Each structure stands twice: as structure tokens, then as C-alpha cells.
């Protein structure tokens, strides 16, 4: 469904609503009124792998927030598949969790928290959560607060995988990871992609593209 | 062991039931408050409710019962919900902590000023603020039971959804959850529970039972699943212990319950510190 638009429109290409999960046409994104990035054209199809690259301040995270529906587009058109809008086929790995260590939390509980709104039986959800934890190589009974940075990133990936997403969106997941953690994360993403899931990864290092072939959208910083 | 309960049951059964049911409700409602590190805001909301209760008393809405009836509860609940909405969207660049402090101070002063010229007004307010568990009527336990059961059902059926909306609203919104709706529902229910407890048990007991059981339980639980049950158990143990001590030592039970919980939290901190020191020493020796 088209959710926002500003005239004049530039609809250069139609949208294959069967295969397409997210489409942007001349999209402008930003906080407030001034766009931090504009003129963005993007089609994320089922099974795609997209790299959204750019330097700090180029608007990568803002674009991601807009694609996720957390920010309204400032211009252009954004189309999101209805199942992406209602979150039922969407998995999200944030740059860092917003959780404050105020309550006790096991890794399995973190993953189960991410399964809200799936509408599946509790037993199936638990099974999916355990499978996702096995895929990233983590013990669900450990305290989340005692994990290292790399392990936390894998736990957040497991939380997204436990929704069995068809679109997995990751915001700078490789930041501050050592080589081993990075390899494990990439292996888990590869497996997910192999199962037909579309992957959108935000990053700032162009060398990331070497880690996995995919389509690349590069955002340039706006001159002030 | 339970002779005190048998001896005093016929006289105080509504008060005992109100204390147990309100304690269970507050212990559950307090978990999102502690999750968001809003202990001061919790105290501020209770004070806003006290001001609402004082306003209802000043307007002559007290229709009977312990510190008024439905009218006082409704006005106090509205005051708490309004305060929660203001706290959710601080004006300008104000920090939430500053707003919580403002709510606490404005609520405390406002309650006194509203009743300053009412006959018996300040006496009534003193009772509310210092808390009393011994004035409940025969209808009050059923109201407290209904609130406890609905809160429990909310935790069992929608606990994860509520907690994700409170703890990680950004992710919840991205996953298609109606976070604003959930947060409004939570604010409304919290307001109703706090207002009812305020009317029946007073400010001190309500504030303490809102935050202390969850603060103690989070230190002892390894995960989220056990946390609500542990918080309820701790609240029940404190209230039962307080009622027994109060009966034997002729002390006010609400204050004994608060003192027991405060002591238990201090003991938990001391045990934590001792455990850390022991681990440090063992590592050093090893």
C-alpha cells in the first residue's frame, strides 16, 4: 500500500506487488522538514540482499527508520507490502538495543519478547526461538546482560530470526565486532538469505560488499 | 502462629483483604515503572493522585467509604492519567526526572492547599498521606479483588506486548504494534489501580508497594518469567508480616509493611555487595 506521497511524483517504474516488499520512488527522508537524503529509488524484492552504505550523517539510519515506517517520508513515494506494514514478515536488528538493564532477562526471554504479534501458538514460538538461538550459537538460559557486545548482536539477530521473517533489516550490525563474531553473524545471515529472506544491511564500510554480493545503495553526505 | 489472624478476622477482614489484593495489584503494575527506571515518576504520580483525591474531597465528592467513594477514585485516577500523559511528553527540553520531581512537589503542596480551609480537611489528608489499612468497608475488598484479577489477566495474556511497548517502544512500533494505544491503556489502568489503592490504603503504602516489591524481585530473579510472581509473593509476605507485627506490637500496619519492604531491599543490596566482595576476594586469592 502507498502510505505517503508529495507532488510532483516521479513514478518511473511500476511495482511487482507479488515479489516486492519495499519500494521507494524519489524518496526524501529526514527529521523535521529538512531532508538528510533525497532522490532515493529502491526496490527490495523477495530474496534480495541490499547494502545501504554511506558515511556518518549521510542519512542511512534515517532512511531505514523511514522504510520501517517509524518516520514519515518528507517527499517522493514509499510503498510497503501490507505484511511489512503489520510486521508479520519483518525482522529488525537495531544498531543497539534500547533496553536498559533494569529487569532480569535471559537470552531466550529476549528472543520471545521479539515474537509479539506473530499470532502463533506459544509452543511453536518457543520452538522457533530455540531454533534461532541454535542458528546463532547462543545458550538461551544465559543472562542477556552478561553477554559480550558480539554475543548481544547475535542475540538480537536471533530475536529477529525467531519471527521467521521474509524481510530482515539490520542497522550497522558489524560495528565493534571482532572477526570471529562478524563471521558468525554473516554465516547466520547467509543461512537466512538462503532460505529466501530478503536482507537489508546498513553499514558505512564499502568493503562490506566484499563479504556478500548484493545490490548497493550509497548515500552521499549532504553538503551544508 | 495465625492466632492473630483468627482473633482479628471478624473485625478487620475487609482491611486485610484490601491490603492483600491491593499489594498484588501494585506489585504487578510497578514492574513497567521499574523497567523504565521511573521510580521517582511513580512517586510523583501517586502524589498527583493524592492532589486529585484532595480536590474531590474539597468539591464534596466524597460519597462515603474510606476517604470517599467512586467520585474520589475517579477524580484521583484522572489526575494520575493526566500527570502520566504530561510526563510522557515533557514540555521543551525538560528531562523526565525533573518533571517527575515537579509532579511530586506540586501534587504534595496542591493536596494540602486544596484542603487547608475544609473542616477536617487536613486531618483527612494526613490520614491519606501517612496511610492506614484499617478503614476499608465490606464492599472495598471486592473492588480490590476485581482490580487484582484484571491486572493478573493482563500480565498473563498481554505481558510480553505490554513490556515490549514499555521497554523498547521503537522496536514494538516497527513490528506493527500499536504502541501509543498500549501505552495509553497502560497509563489508564495504572491510574485506576493507583487511585483505588490511594483511597483504600493511602499514599505511603501505595508508593511503597508500587516500587519496592519489583525492585527487590529483580535482584533475586534470573529472568523475566518469574519476576511478576516473585514481586507478588514479596508484597504478600510483607503485608502478612506487617499485619501480624502490627497486631502483636500495636503498630500501624501500613508503615510496618513499608518498613519491612525497605529493610528487605537494603538487605538485598547488602547481600549483593557482600557477594561482589566475596567474588573479588576469591579471584584475587585464586
Query: How many extended strands of chain B?
Result: 0
From the alpha-carbon coordinates, what is the Rg of chain A to the nearest angstrom? 18 Å
State the major sheet of chain A: 5 strands, parallel
Overall body shape of chain B: globular
Strand coverage percent of chain B: under 5%
The residue fraction in helices of chain A comes out at: 25-40%
Number of helices, where a helix is a run of at least 4 consecutive DSSP H or I residues of chain B: 11
**Average residue-wise pLDDT of chain B:** 88
Query: Greatest interface and its residue counts?
Result: A-B, 29 and 27 residues
Task: Please outline the helices and strands.
The complex is a heterodimer of chains A (224) and B (286).
Chain A: E1 2-6, E2 20-29, E3 37-45, E4 49-54, H1 60-67, E5 75-80, H2 82-85, E6 90-93, H3 107-113, H4 122-136, H5 149-161, E7 167-171, H6 179-194, E8 198-203, H7 208-211, E9 215-219
Parallel strand pairs in A: 4-8, 4-9, 6-7, 7-8
Antiparallel strand pairs in A: 1-5, 2-3, 2-5
Helix pairs in contact in A: 3-4, 3-5, 4-5, 5-6
Chain B: H1 3-35, H2 39-58, H3 70-88, H4 96-115, H5 121-130, H6 140-167, H7 169-174, H8 179-201, H9 203-220, H10 227-249, H11 253-285
What can you see in these coordinates?
The complex is a heterodimer of chains A (224) and B (286). Chain A contains 7 helices and 9 strands, in the order E-E-E-E-H-E-H-E-H-H-H-E-H-E-H-E. Chain A has 224 residues and is α/β, with parallel strands linked by helices. In chain A, strand 2 and strand 3 form a beta hairpin. In chain A, helix 3 (107-113) packs across helix 5 (149-161) and helix 4 runs antiparallel to helix 5 (149-161). Residues 1-12 of chain A have low confidence and may be disordered. With 286 residues, chain B is mainly α. Chain B has one domain: ABC transporter involved in vitamin B12 uptake, BtuC (Orthogonal Bundle), CATH 1.10.3470.10. Chain B contains 11 helices and no strands. The A-B interface holds A 68-70, 85-88, 90, 92, 94, 97-100, 102-106, 108-109, 112-117, 143, 163 and B 31, 34-37, 160-161, 163-164, 167-177, 218, 221-225, 227.
